[in-house]
Amino acid sequence: MNRSDPALFGPALRRRVSAFIAIPLFVGCAAPAGSGPAGSGPDGTRPIRTSAAPSPAAANIAAREQTADQQVQHALNRLAFGPRPGDVAAVRAQGVDRWIDRQLHPERLGDTTLTGFLAAYETLGKTSAALYADYPPAAQALAQLQRRNGVITAEDSARIREQSRRSSILLGELTSSRVARAVLTERQLDEVMVDFWENHFNVFSGKDRTRYYLTAFDTKVIRPHALGHFRDLLGAVAKSEAMLYYLDNWQSVADSGRPVLQTTRTQNRSPNPRAAARRATAAPPRPASVLPTAQRRRGLNENYARELMELHTLGVDGGYTQQDVIEVARALTGWTLDRGAQGGSFVFRPLVHDAGAKTILGQHFPAGRGIEEGEAVLDLLARHPKTATFIATKLARRFVSDSPPPALVTRAAATFRATNGDIREVVRTIVTSPEFFSADAYRAKVKSPFELVVSTLRAMNATPDSTPRSAQLISRLGQPIFGHQAPNGYPETGDAWMNTGAILNRINFGLAVASGRVPGVKLAAWPTSKELAALPREQQVDGVIRELFGGAVSADTRQVLLTGTNPFLAKRGSESDTSFAMNGNTGTKRQAAAAGFAQIVGLALGAPEFQRR
Fold first, then answer.
1. Average of per-residue pLDDT across 265-275
2. Single pTM value for the model
3. Which of 50, 457, 530, 580 has a CB 3.0–4.6 Å from the CB of 462, allowing a cystine?
4. 13: confidence class by pLDDT, cuts 50, 70, 90
5. Residues ≥6 apart with Cβ < 8 Å to 557
6. Is the separation of the CB atoms in 214 and 171 below 8 Å?
């Protein structure tokens, strides 16, 4: 494969856009196969491993096509949100494989800096009910005022505005904390997996009260299970307020005419040990007769059942039928919220559960079962071979390639089945594989807007921003956090993020960072600035390339940095002035050099190589 075509700056617009997605990978550096094991120290020795996990097979290490330095860059850009200053040297010193193993066990890594930073947030530790009570929607205050007398005074209007401001705090803090965690945490791979799963199990914040449930979804549902077992994660999501509300399962009940579970007076009495023992050994509760029509204000809702099979487990080609969707929806009737539309914790209501017999994916489910029926459905889906392949494919797509190698997917799916869905071991299979460290995988993935902003903040050694401003930058680049309306989540492939407008915005974002217009970034505080700011431009360019790209960029990118002229911006007629840092009265040569340095950094952050990981 010829990977040396011009990158972003060809003469034709179509060529420029496509080249941004297919930039040269190894211009300026050789990539001989078998160039040495990952994690080798300066003397060629391997570090002693402290983990009980087996090291990658020698054959896997020998098959790696990336050089030792490329492996360090690659691991930090795929298994983390890019390196912070000093990270490359630290990973090189301990060895890539040991660093990967440590990242696979986040519980062993201290994270005091992040913990201290998050302590300032007022909403992250609150329950959904407390959030609604403390930050009610402005519409609620308006309705109360209208019920009171129907007249809205100036004082009332001020109160509504204040309540509107307060109600926005909770989502602002949640999205801000997502960015801050990704920037600060030492548990980078764990945070990458949180990002992966929150996209896989997408929930849209804009639906009614859903935003009140997202903090618990992030902190109590996804994070504890991000590298755990898939079945545990699936069950936690199924019972979460956020998912129950977003996909309407909280209001899914047995259709009129269907049998439901009988509730008895004994269920409402004080516990009786002997009676409880008899019930424990008794047959399942018998189906009751049909509920009166007046009690059935809703019916079966298939939304969650469909997405559970299509998006969460089996995949769109998972071999299920529409009838299977209906049967799964029936099995999950009665899985609801204890306060209904007001939210609350998960509860199972037998009186609205369809207690009839069902057949799902060819497996018979007898009549008369309760909550355990839904659990059995989740068991069936979690251990299904199609689920193993679907999850393995998505993980390989996230970590390796937009078109993941079939052999790697097969091995990762086999690990999923053999370990009962151990996410940590599936990820290990992928990220220690020869395919992960192949030449074709290096800089082969386009960063999403979230990855771009966070990797930029990390590269520039930024101070995390506790306001929503950094999250808003991600939104402007096209990826609002918890802002994807459809349940399929944001795309995992680069073509979805690349068009002329997106490229222009990304370049301008890089320029804004270098000019001091992005929260938390001070170019003077970047360690490299002290070394390079007063040097001649060519030496500044070499230093920036070394720091941000490991020393390797295309000839086109280097030329842009040397000249300060970006043909893409010029031909687009952009309002951005690529010479912004050079304009005005610079005063002294030293000031002029510093201004030119800011321009180099801005153009580097907008370069094709930095847009990729």
1. 44
2. 0.84
3. 457
4. very low
5. 7, 8, 604, 607, 608, 609
6. yes
